[in-house]
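User: Can you predict the 3D structure for this chain?
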Amino acid sequence: MDILRHPDSVVDELLAALTTNGLIYGTGETYPSLITPSSCIISNDEVAAIDADLRCLQHFYRTWNALYRAALAGEEPRWIADLCEYGLRPEEIQAQRMTLAAGLEPRFCRVDYITIGADRKIAEVQWKSGGLGLFFGIHDVCASIAPTPTARAGHPVQGLYQLIMRCNGHNPVAVNAVRSVWLRGEHYLRRSYLQRGIRYIVLDRREGSRRIIERNGYLTIAEGGKLLRIDFLYGQELLPALPPPMIVRIARVAAEGKLWVETPLNYVYRQKWGMALPFMPAYAHLFDDRLRALFGAVAMLRSDVVDLSPLAIGLPAEIACQLQRIRTIDQIAYLSTAARRMLVLKCGAGSGLYYSQGRGVFRINGSRSAAQKTLAFVQSRIAQGEPWIIQRYVNATYPVDVYAPWSPHTFERIDAHARFMVYATFDQSGSPQMIGGLGNFGRDWKVSGKSAQVDERGHLTGTAFNDMRFYQHS
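Assistant: Here is the predicted structure, written as structure tokens:
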């Protein structure tokens, strides 16, 4: 993967177009993130490799769900089902089991790569990406303002449009209930789809319980004094705001084929703990080496016995030996700083306070006492039944020029950590298609969407987005 730098002259144009299109997170009036006049350029070989990754990831989740079914039937250990259902209310468990029994699988995903190329690594699969309108709009603005003759942009707006049209080929109604911070950006999709004949209704998720109603066995939404039958429901943000019985009714309507819910009401697709399954001796044979290479190395953190040997593979002998000797969570704090620097702790649940927005992601590369505090916190969560995993830290950076939105004529070059957000859809046969993507760059190792600021040393912080393009070979 290459990062193609565009002329500085496009920065003003980028900033103006992003603001004019309402591509704003939160309640501000201007685009809040850093600006980078660049694009991620993906080679044809890398596109083919990502396509193969998507097929591999689909197989991984199918296998994980098969283990879940087997655990419910008593054919695999009960702890698998317990972790799949951790933190869920009884109605959510009921909805999840209905979805599982109906064999409903996602048709849309976002794979977050840390590196792209021969040594690809992923942080996670986002089957329920937030901010579709914001991110797709950023992609379109970047691609239109700085086109290149040798690389084509993807078409995420068109890709999602085609997915919605499969639910109802004639004037479908799609609904996306979001947190208020996403609302402004989501109207980019509403306007785009209105021109294509789709009613794409955007609402604050807090309105969901009032406006979304089951009527005559179908799901409807109150809009403009009418009740409209919903064909496509993007459920990323909605579920926490709904009364539990309504979640069961949505699952039933979806299982009957009267509605498509994306992602289907199976919280496995929000969880991360299953990434440890390919590294467990009892289940390693169910997965191939390509998947293990993508995940890097992952181990479960358990309250009884901890085995970090999967993380030791390929490391210097001294660090590998330290990791292989670990048997309890407490002992991790006594690893050398060099060894602790190699580790990332993640909440593996699909619900609760720590499963999203980076809140349950920690490194322990500081002092031993700080590591002990972090590990004690993780232990307290595990004692409640919450799943946690530990991964190898991937330290890859990319030189990127960034501009502050309030000062678009002065740039700063940063060695940026990256999250390459690859969007894809799956057709009814399960074949994936990459529809586009974004790069997200920032100084901090935990890359996520952060507003631009200046730190105490006068350096720009926050993150910058750019679009993803694919080389066209003649």
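The mean pLDDT is 94. The chain has 15 helices and 22 strands.
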